[in-house]
Design brief:
Length: about 100
């Protein structure tokens, strides 16, 4: 998003956890992710909403464009199946792929 002119900083989009290097095709409702004793289950997509208009670099004038930019790129909601401690840089693996559509 920064390369596209949106000066987004970590946390601006309400994310609690940012992951990389996971197989995108396996993510979706029903998928389970694990890191140590922590298990998360994806429950649904996190669609962009008008709350994002309140970011200082968005505002009402750029709000619709920003929401359009984020469509399909916002991430997922997940529920905690098993709690524990997550560490920055810790490995996360797909324990179970998404449910068939």
């Amino acid at each position: 998003l920064n390369a596209e002119g949106w000066p987004v900083r970590p946390g601006d989009l309400g994310e609690n956890l940012t992951l990389s290097a996971l197989p995108e095709a396996e993510l979706g409702p029903g998928a389970r992710l694990g890191s140590g004793e922590v298990v998360l289950e994806i429950t649904g997509p996190c669609d962009p909403c008008t709350e994002l208009h309140s970011l200082p670099y968005v505002g009402h004038a750029k709000g619709e464009a920003f929401v359009r930019t984020l469509l399909g790129r916002r991430g997922w909601y997940a529920r905690v199946v098993a709690g524990g401690e997550l560490r920055t840089g810790g490995a996360v693996e797909v324990l179970k792929g998404r449910e068939p559509a």
